[in-house]
Each structure stands twice: as C-alpha cells, then as structure tokens.
Write a structure and sequence with these properties.
About 40% of the residues are buried. By secondary structure, the chain is α+β, with helices and mostly antiparallel strands. It folds into two domains: about 20-170 and about 350-355, Aminotransferase class 4, branched-chain amino acid transferase, N-terminal domain (D-amino Acid Aminotransferase, Chain A, domain 1); about 175-325, D-amino Acid Aminotransferase, subunit A, domain 2 (D-amino Acid Aminotransferase, Chain A, domain 2, Alpha-Beta Barrel), CATH 3.20.10. Strand 8 (about 175-180), helix 4 (about 195-210) and strand 9 form a beta-alpha-beta unit. The chain has helices at about 60-65, 85-100, 110-120, 195-210, 260-270, 280-290, 325-340, and strands spanning about 30-35, 40-50, 65-70, 70-75, 80-85, 135-140, 155-165, 175-180, 215-220, 230, 235-240, 245, 275, 295-300, 305-315, 315-320, 350-355. The strands form two sheets. Strands 1, 2, 3, 4, 5, 6, 7 and 17 form an eight-stranded antiparallel beta sheet that branches. The structure holds pyridoxal-5'-phosphate. Pyridoxal-5'-phosphate binds near residues 231, 234, 235, 259 and 301.
C-alpha cells in the first residue's frame, strides 16, 4: 500500500462518546489532502491536522460548483478490526463523477490508499458500539481564482472523517415520502449520475416543500414526463411487487448507489427476482390498490436501508404494509449490517481491512 507523509496534530480533540454521536457534526483530528496542477498532475498526497482551508473569495468552486464528492463507511468489528465497505467501488465512482464535471481523474489506487491511510491514522476515532461507524467523505474542488465559466486548471482532493451514530437509534423507523412532479432532480444529459454538490443544491427547495407538508423525503419522478420513479431524497429506491423486487434502471439520471448494488446482489443470492426497469407512479398506485405493493425502501450509505411507510402523490396517500417495516426490508438491513460488522461471512469480499497506524511521525 502507498505510504503518505503524516503530520500529527499537536492538539488532539476530545472524543465524543459513542452514544452521543449524531451524523456529520464531529470531525476527527486529521485529513488527507492532495493537489492537482496541469504541470504536476495529482501530487503531494499527505495527511495533516484537520484545519480550515483559506480560500480566495473568487475561487471558482464557490461560484460555479465544480465539485464532486463521495461517501463511504469504515466499521469496527467484534474483534476490534477496522474495515472499509467497498472502497474500490466508491473510488471508481468518484472518478466517474470527476469525469462528468471535467475534473482530471485520480489514480484509483491512490484514492483507495488515502481512505485506508487516513482511517488508519485516526483509528482511535472509529467507534465500537454496534450501529456506529466512521463516515469517510472524499471531495474534489476546483481551486482556480477566476469568474469565467470554464473548467479550472487546479484542483484539491481531500478526505475528512466523521464518527457517526446508528441512523436508527430504536430500530428501523419507516418514513413518509412525497412523490412530486413539480420539481425535478435531474434530466437526461444532465448531472444525475454524478455525486456532485449541484444536485444537492437542486434538491433543497423540493425537500423543504415536502417537509412543510409533513413528509421526510421527496420521491423524485423523471424530469421528462414526471411519471417514472427515480430516487427518494438522496437514496435509490426499491419496491416489492408481489414476489419481485423492482428498482429504476441506471440510465444517467440516477446515482449508481453502492448500497443499491449490494442489495441487488444479496436479493439475487437469496433467489429473489430483481427487475431493473422503469416503474411509473401509476403502476405503483395500481399495485397499492391491488395489494401487490407490499414493501418499499430506500438504499444509501448513511442509512443503509430506509423503510417507506407511506407514499403521497397529489391527493393520494398510500400506506404501505400498514406503515410498518416489511420482512424483506428488515432482512436486507440486517444482512448488510452483519457483513459490515463482521458478524457473518463476507461472501463477496466487500470489506477491506484497515491497518491502524501507530502515532509516530513520518
Ligand atoms: C450517494 C447517493 C445515493 C446512494 O449511494 P450509496 O453508494 O448507496 O451511498 C443515492 N442517490 C444519490 C442522489 C446519492 O447522492
């Protein structure tokens, strides 16, 4: 594995107790940083104390959002070993996002090594309580100082870490979601399949609208006809229709979720038929009326599996499985968690061990 120079912090922060953790508000002692210039390519990968960046107010990323990110987790298993969940897949996706935003690609091996090295340096921050983890956030931003609209010449790649709690403190809690054809997240030919800041900015207004009507998330419909399901909030979506699981296909407007891929693999391992095909809101309403829509859930790194207990669309309110978590939803959640916490055989080789690094400066 690649070694990076490490500058240790002189001011370690106080740790937050495992049972006091939330999501995304506590950061560890160090970060990984690497820069790009046209002359030197990606260079100078290093681990340094976590600290603010100094930015020129005209820095182009602040104006035109040429930025991508990803998100993955590291877990501590029962024997204390720390392991990352599918870092290779996340590194590959970061590069696909870079391509969509005209950002020069990174060496995938260096990206994977950056995750492992940083988690290794901050290994003492990886919580142990079941359900907790370290959330790893790699980000790439454009760094040139100019107000013209064209790709930046310089970039910065950095990785920060947050210890996070179990998303569900008291077991899986179904959410209410609102399908909307008034707002769109992405359109064909746009940025929908990239993990980019701009998509999140574009989702805020609809989310606020849904929240004002008492819903936790937006179910995005396609931007062309306002008819086909795309994603739920910032998760992929799956439905159980009879004995089949249906999920919208990857077609450029939705994010190729690693949790989505993992859920599809496990379902197929169990002999469940999974169809990746367009599914319209009308088909969903009909299936609800017929009683064949028995479960619906979202998939994503933060929550893993998020059961959906109620779906609103215009004047309709559809309660799914009596508003309770379905059997397959729960089985998927438990199966993925068991792999992540090392409680079961990792048949597909998804977990990658991290070596804890002793506190000796490079
Ligand atoms: C990150 C993300 C997902 C989920 O992807 P995972 O790899 O499963 O975390 C789904 N949709 C959007 C829009 C996302 O940004």
């Amino acid at each position: 594995m690649q070694d990076f120079p490490v500058t240790r912090t002189q001011h370690p922060k106080p740790r937050v107790a495992d049972d006091k953790l939330r999501f995304g508000d506590v950061f560890t002692d160090h970060m990984f940083v690497m820069d790009y210039t046209p002359e030197h390519g990606w260079h100078d990968g290093r681990i340094v104390p976590y600290a603010p960046f100094t930015m020129d107010p005209a820095c182009c990323v602040l104006h035109y959002a040429q930025a991508v990110f990803d998100g993955l987790k590291a877990f501590r298993d029962e024997r204390g070993q720390i392991r990352l969940f599918r870092p290779d897949q996340h590194a590959a996706r970061l590069n696909r996002s870079c391509e969509a935003l005209c950002i020069p690609p990174l060496d995938q091996a260096v990206v994977e090594a950056s995750f492992a090295a940083l988690v290794g340096v901050d290994a003492g921050w990886v919580p142990a309580r079941r359900g907790t983890s370290i959330y790893v956030r790699p980000t790439v931003i454009a760094t040139d100082v100019f107000l013209g609209v064209h790709p930046s010449a310089g970039y910065r790649y950095y990785v920060i870490l947050c210890p996070v709690s179990a998303y569900y403190k008291e077991g899986l809690a179904p959410v209410r979601i609102l399908a909307t054809d008034e707002h769109v997240r992405a359109v064909p030919g746009g940025l929908g399949s990239a993990k980019t800041a701009a998509n999140y900015a574009a989702s805020l207004y609809a989310a606020k609208d849904a929240a004002a009507r008492g819903y936790a998330q937006v179910l995005w419909l396609d931007g062309k006809r306002g008819e086909f399901l795309e994603e739920v909030g910032s998760m992929n979506v799956m439905l159980r229709l009879g004995d089949t699981v249906v999920t919208p296909p990857l077609g450029g407007t939705i994010l190729d979720g690693i949790t989505r891929r993992s859920a599809i693999q496990l379902l197929r391992d169990w002999g469940v038929t999974v169809e990746e095909r367009p599914v319209s809101i009308h088909e969903v309403m009909q299936a609800h009326a017929d009683g064949t829509l028995t479960e619906m859930w979202g998939t994503g790194t933060a929550v893993v599996i998020s059961p959906i207990g109620e779906l609103g669309f215009r004047d309709a309110r559809m309660v799914i499985n009596g508003g309770a978590t379905g059997e397959l939803t729960r089985r998927l959640y438990e199966a993925i968690a068991a792999i992540q916490y090392g409680a079961t055989n990792d048949a597909h080789g998804w977990m990658r061990p991290v070596r804890a690094l002793e506190a000796v400066d490079a």
